[in-house]
Amino acid sequence: MTAEIQTTASMAGGWSARWRGVAAVAAGFLLAVLPWVGWVRAKSGEWVPVSSGGPPTLRDGLSFHHKSFRNRLELPAGVERMSEAAWNRYSELDSSGAYVRFVLRMAAEDPVAVVETYLYKAARAWYGTDAQRKGAERFNLVVSVAWLAAVGAGIWRRARADWPAAAWLLVGFTGLFWYMTTVALSIARYMTPTAALLAPLAGWIFEAGGSRQTPKAVRLEAR
């Protein structure tokens, strides 16, 4: 009985430590962003959390072959149709609302093209370059696959053990970056911050002694 009470207290202390870790990660993000937000507010009088270039970036993310500095890609058929349709209405896509209406209209007229486009953009988010240079993109792809494999191995190693609450925050922020990059301009540069976010997860593959015991297992042994 005493051992079980001690284990319960240990679990409570563990959860407290986990949430302190979550708070520390969140504070780190805020400290990185707030000076920028304050400076922009002081200069412009506007609140700009990260960027004011929303609509131009959104429509630029659908234009693969219409910028002079970009190399031509062999696009899937659906992506090609979506890109051409966006370019034909390029001047009209001057707001986030106009972008959303365009995507919804395309989803009604050509749903395959929309799905194919955003799946393609989701993949390119990990290796794409703005200039669409094939050599650089191949290199980025190899590095990204290796890195994500290490992250996946770390998660798998720890999946059946005591999963830290802070890890959910890291995964969540990574998902947010991936979502924003997929919707906007899908280039690996925008995913660079996720390398630091995922590093602790990849590090689990080097954890000595493998996965730790779960609190449930400890309670059973105490009995």
Radius of gyration: 23 Å
Bin the helical content.
55-70%
Beta-strand content estimate: under 5%
Individual helix count: 9
Uncertain residue segments: 3-9, 209-223
Tell me the series of helices and strands, N- to C-terminal.
HHHHHHHHH
Indicate the topology.
Elements: H1 2-44, H2 54-60, H3 77-88, H4 96-109, H5 111-124, H6 134-158, H7 165-183, H8 193-203, H9 215-222
Helix pairs in contact: 1-7, 1-9, 3-5, 4-5, 5-7, 6-8, 7-8
Task: Compose a concise summary of this entry.
This protein has helices spanning 2-44, 54-60, 77-88, 96-109, 111-124, 134-158, 165-183, 193-203, 215-222. It is an all-alpha fold.
Question: Can you characterise this structure?
Answer:
The chain is globular, with a radius of gyration of 23 Å. Helix content is 69%, strand content 0%. The termini are close together. α1 (2-44) packs parallel to α7 and α6 runs parallel beside α8. It has helices at 2-44, 54-60, 77-88, 96-109, 111-124, 134-158, 165-183, 193-203, 215-222. It has 223 residues and is mostly helical. The model is unreliable at 3-9 and 209-223 (pLDDT under 50).
Key phrases:
single chain; 223 residues; mainly alpha; 0% strand; disordered N terminus
